[in-house]
Amino acid sequence: MFVVVTVVACWLGWQIRLIHERDATKKFVIRHHGVIAEDDNSVRQAWLDAYPLHPEVPERSMEISTIRRLLGDKAVIEITVPDSLGKNQLNRIQANFPEANVGEFIDE
Hints:
The protein has helices spanning 2-31, 41-50, 56-59, 66-70, 87-96; strands at residues 35-38, 76-82, 101-105. The chain is an alpha+beta fold. The protein is globular.
């Protein structure tokens, strides 16, 4: 019984750590003038209206687990950041948000 409780507690701690890391990444993106489109019905409908030939794109956001949603995490459809951030930061953002489309815009 002790082992089961320990394993569940470790798993839950890992999920909470992921949520905190994602929140820190969101703050980083916003601080660097990036744009984040979180998954909610209005964003999903706007995406479907804008891209009627690609209805599968918003469905990718459903990959976030129910437990993480219950813990306060939100799925993200798209993140756009300035190209001045570089590939390393872009890869870090993509790793933290595998459900999102991550792209760059030209930072003038």
